[in-house]
Amino acid sequence: MRAVILAAGRGKRLGTATDDRPKCLVELAGRSLLDRQLAALRAGGAPDVAVVAGWHAERFDAHPLTVFRNDRWAETTQVESLLAADPWLRAGPVVVSYGDIVYSAETVHALIACPHELAIAYDPGWRAVWERRFAEPLDDAETFRLGEAGLLTEIGGRPESVTEVEGQYVGLLKFTPPAWALVREVVRTEVAVHGADLTGLLRFLLRERATAIGTTPVRGPWWEFDQPADIAAGLGVLAELDRRERT
Question: Which of 165, 69, 174 is nearest to 117 (CA)?
């Protein structure tokens, strides 16, 4: 199993911390997000890791990783970054991680074990996380519903109440080559997904292609570092993940 970290974007919502580096190279509590991601991915069953670079791509020169480039990072989305990693995604199953999240090795292992060709990790206890990050959690949350056998039935809409939110996608997913072949075909032929982010792509696959998307709940803590307030609020999560890694 391989893994790809999407790290091409500017990450400007995090403020001056990303003036000279991508978000995954921001150091918090003594370690970069990338260091924690590599540890979780490798311990979880994906020892071979690449990054898709764009903003300050040269900062990855010091890291012994495969580097794919999205030179159009400023005008494209995560979908374009995924396309940059096409050689790996065609060759075998790949775990894909956003560059601004941290998570446990157990979550990675569970995602890899999910039997579906396309699968995502989600947080069923999302509300506790969102209440720590946002004054009005429902303003930022997206619709998320599950059907039989844990298959995803709805994602990415604007919820009117918490009853439409059974969890939140955390930015960690898995593609097998057949699932990736479908994504490549959709991106090539469907105008509706041009400019969409990955959540929008998943929503399209559900609604227009009736794609089976498996899900697995997170195991242990996770966190997203998208804005400055997330740093202070997420230090406890970093400490817990570091403790788990040591034991």
Answer: 174
Which stretch of DSSP H or E encloses residue 127?
Answer: helix 126-133
Between CA 165 and CA 124 the distance in angstroms is 9
Q: What is the CATH number of the domain that holds 128?
A: 3.90.550.10
Q: How would DSSP label each residue in 204-231?
A: HHHHHH----EEEE--S--EE--SHHHH
CA distance 101 to 174: 15
Q: At residue 236, what is the residue type?
A: G
Residues 116-130 have pLDDT tens digits of 999 999 999 999 999
Q: In this structure, what token pair is assigned to residue 175?
A: 């593609």
Per residue in 44-59, pLDDT tens? 999 999 999 999 999 9
DSSP 8-state secondary structure symbol assigned to residue 21: S
Structural domain containing residue 208: 2-245
Please work out, in degrees rounded to the nearest 5, the angle formed at the alpha carbon of residue 15 by the alpha carbons of 63 and 201.
Answer: 70
DSSP 145-173: EE-GGG-EEEES---SSGGGBS-EEEEEE
Q: Which two tokens stand for residue 22?
A: 């991508």
Residues of the chain with pLDDT under 50: none
Contacts of 61 (CB under 8 A, 6+ apart): none
Per-residue model confidence as pLDDT tens digits over 163-194: 999 999 999 999 999 999 999 999 999 999 99
Q: In total, how many domains does the chain have?
A: 1
